[in-house]
Design brief:
The complex is a heterodimer of chains A (284) and B (259).
Chain A lengths: L2 H26 L3 H25 L5 H25 L4 H25 L5 H9 L7 H30 L1 H6 L3 H39 L6 H25 L5 H32 L1
Chain B lengths: L2 H6 L12 E12 L2 E12 L3 E5 L6 H8 L7 E6 L4 H4 L3 E4 L13 H6 L14 H13 L15 H14 L4 E5 L7 H16 L3 E5 L6 H4 L2 E5 L3 E5 L1 H5 L2 H7 L8
């Protein structure tokens, strides 16, 4: 295996593990679209950062500004959902409002920045679809760091997270919701930002949602679901990356999500068949 | 309370549990948006008392409970538990909701859910010690669910779910138990278990505040009652409240019958 393939597969492994594990929490909270909103929130920050770089004439600021602005705009978008929810809007309405605001702001900003030639169409395509085949060490380091931090946070806060995911009202009564909401916003934005280079905005939700759906019929507990979902996400992402590198000449991100989709269908029908089998055995 | 305490909503460990007034609600108005559902509600609950909150459908009983617990922001007025704010004494106050927000298909076990009751006593990590697990097991035994501790949440019946939520509240070891229509849609076994738990709870000098729908057994089950119909319209012993003009105005000339 050459160095480039190794880097791509390592990047896909950390992306898959991160999305799978975090996606289990997101799915249990029924907030899969929140991560999608966070992804769309990134766009205006990324576009804005490119405009700022052009305005300041400081190309060396491009990468730090991109991360800072992407993080800030995404966190603001997520913060808006919590703000709307606290004012009586449903989760769906909050997500819809946030995504509309994120889309609108991104498009306006994009046309302004593109007017100055500071953001290329290729840059936008990469943001939307990702480009796993061109991952470099510098681009996978954030997701590796996020993975390590994520594992540590999960080990320390496992039961606190379980409580918060299982019954948010109880977390409010216990007075923990502010801190955990803050951790949740930072974690969502960090996961979305660090996984964008591999999967892009449009494929991210698939990577978040499908591993947990694949694993759910086969596990009984919370920890099993999170770990199982992370492993499925990691393994299927690496398999898709390996296929895409040597066998199937198709975009890696798309193959990851299609692979996860096939995995979900297989799991769904296998679980149903097994249930039918159990019922028949019980009847016999 | 300093800023750090306020951020992490820590409880005040110096609170006295021997206050005569367990709950004081003073001029409380609450609702959704700018619209009042309950207005200018004032009443007190004494320590060791079992109080029923009654009223017609849509009178604002559940809204009142949520406002008391800070789940919705009161439009005006104040609430004191044991002479302190709810933030200062939250570890002593347990709540069993009417329409619980729990996803019963969640991949977890009964013991996990009951253990959530201990969270308010623990740090952010929610890690339970031996004493906490003992409290969990005690609560499970109290509601006759010890045998189902390892059962999946998705495998529970409606009555068992009610008992699990009650066990979670008991695992908290609260001084004040607030429940929203716990007797609704339960079987006889669950009702008997619930009554036994409430009797034991009260025998320990603890306070129970319960939104109750069945007017027929208010006299038998409660020490006092508060009639809510947009605001407090009557308060006193069940006999006083059920015989009051406010009761007739709220329910018509209805003679309460036991279920």
């Amino acid at each position: 295996m050459d160095y480039n393939t190794f880097i791509v597969l390592t990047g896909l492994l950390s992306t898959g593990l991160l999305l799978g594990g975090f996606g289990a929490l997101v799915s249990l909270k029924g907030e899969n679209l929140t991560a999608d909103v966070a992804g769309h929130g990134v766009v205006s920050g990324v576009v804005g950062s490119q405009g700022l770089v052009a305005l300041l004439g400081a190309p060396w600021l491009a990468v730090p500004l991109l991360w800072a602005c992407g993080f800030a705009s995404s966190a603001l978008t997520l913060g808006f959902i919590f703000w709307a929810r606290a004012r009586g809007y449903s989760v769906g309405a909050g997500q819809a409002l946030a995504i509309a605001a994120a889309y609108g702001a991104s498009l306006v900003l994009l046309s302004v920045v593109q007017g100055y030639g500071a953001f290329s169409t290729k840059g936008l395509t990469t943001l939307l679809l990702g480009d796993a085949a061109t991952l470099t060490l510098a681009r996978i380091v954030p997701s590796l760091l996020a993975l390590i931090v994520g594992i540590l946070v999960f080990l320390v806060l496992r039961r606190g997270l379980l409580n918060w995911v299982l019954d948010p009202q109880s977390a409010v009564l216990h007075g923990r919701h502010r801190v955990i909401n803050l951790i949740w916003i930072v974690a969502t934005v960090a996961v979305v930002l660090t996984c964008l280079p591999a999967l892009g905005l449009t494929l991210l939700v698939g990577g978040l949602t499908l591993p947990a759906l694949i694993v759910r019929p086969w596990v009984q507990g919370f920890t099993g679901l999170v770990i199982g979902s992370a492993l499925v996400g990691g393994i299927l992402s690496v398999a898709a990356g390996w296929l895409s590198a040597g066998v199937l000449p198709v975009p890696t991100g798309a193959l990851v999500v299609v692979g996860l989709g096939v995995g979900w269908l297989t799991s769904f029908f296998a679980a149903r068949a097994l249930r039918v089998l159990r019922v028949r055995r019980a009847a016999a | 309370m300093n800023a750090l305490t306020s951020l992490f909503m820590m409880t005040d460990k110096t609170v006295s549990l021997t206050q005569e007034t367990a709950l004081g609600v003073y001029g409380l108005s609450a609702g959704y948006g700018a619209e009042n559902v309950v207005q200018d509600v004032t009443f007190e609950v004494r320590r060791g008392e079992r109080l029923a909150i009654i009223g017609p459908n849509g009178a604002g009983k559940s809204t009142l409970l949520k406002a008391i617990l800070g789940l919705i922001k009161p439009l005006k007025g104040s609430v004191q538990f044991l002479d302190r704010s709810f933030n200062a004494v939250r570890q002593h106050v347990a709540y069993v909701s009417q329409v619980d927000e729990i996803d019963w298909r969640f991949p977890g076990k009964v013991r996990d859910l009951v253990a959530m009751g201990r969270a308010v006593h623990l740090g952010l990590s929610g890690r339970l010690g031996t004493g906490d697990w003992r409290a969990v097991d005690r609560a499970l035994r109290a509601v006759n669910l010890a045998d189902l501790a390892e059962r999946r949440l998705s495998d529970l019946s409606g009555g068992q779910r009610r008992r699990v939520l009650l066990a979670r509240a008991l695992a908290q070891d609260p001084q004040i138990l607030i429940m929203d229509e716990p007797f609704q849609a339960i079987d006889e076994a669950t009702r008997a278990a619930l009554l036994e738990v409430l009797d034991d709870f009260q025998a320990e000098g603890k306070t129970a505040i319960i939104v109750h729908h069945n007017l027929g057994d208010v006299r038998a089950l409660f020490d006092r009652a508060v009639l809510i119909d947009g605001g407090v319209t009557a308060v006193g012993t069940p006999d006083t409240v059920l015989a009051s003009p406010a009761f007739t105005a709220a329910f018509g000339a209805l003679e309460p019958r036991a279920a």
